Amino acid sequence: MPPPGGGGGxxxPPxxxPPxxxPPPGGGGGGGxxQPPAGAPGMGAYAPPQGGYGAPPGPPMGMGAGxxxxxxxxxxxxxDGGKLFGTYLLFAVVPVIVAYFVFGIFYGIGFAIESAARTxxxxxLLFGGVGALILMAGVLTASVLxxxxxxxxxxxxxxxxxxxxxxxxxxxxxxxxMLINMILSSLTCxxxxxxxxxxxxxxxxxKVLVGGQPNRLTFHGDPASLLGTYIxxxxxxYCTLGIYGPWFANNIFAFMWENTKFDGRNYQFRKDPGxxFGTYLLxxxxxxxxxxxxxxxxxxxxxxxxAERVA
Length: 311
Known about the structure:
4-stranded antiparallel beta sheet; 3-stranded antiparallel beta sheet; 53% helix
């Protein structure tokens, strides 16, 4: 098969074309017709530019470098843990700390008034309730802000088939999706979660530009097909105290990528739970030891591991 641009491949020339080394009609890249020399690859290999035979300029379509069977190479993630740490600190940690601080102020005021007025706990309950609402609003706001900033960070660092990505979603748009997902997942005791995952992925992909162009990245996952995997995975993770986590994560990675299309072309994910176990375990241990300071670096390591196994 010829490379894009018309470069020739092996095989006989079309009727009436000059034999041996002449470029095909219509311009395009180099490459010649005729039979390949001894030892050259057969039908489907690329011919090099400017005539003659040799190695192709890159792997054939659908094949990647670095893994047996050609898996990998189509997706590159270049995210930096230091940059994500700043986002994590500013949009996740700080808002939650502020929300807890405000809650403490309201609770303290209510307790002080209650101690002086002795209203039977009404004032304390009132101020504590207001503080709790502020705390809940602060946590939800931090979740939306961080999620939106995380998507921006992730896609800015993502390259698909050599083309840069960009996330253009807003916190207001994402908040609507997250709020509906949270309510329905709560009402169904978590059964709605696969639908929430698919709904979120569809929304995010609709807000991603690839090479500066919209609607090139689409998601076509069926949440019903994920339900069994999700329920079984959660049960096994719980029963094994997290040891099944790498296997469950690989199943989720595969579902995400194999239902993602770029310009109508599918991706494949090479599952490797055994290879992921070390990365998974190290991220958990170092995050616990450092009071979650390592968390952003661990996430970037996991995302790079994931990208390297996509083709």
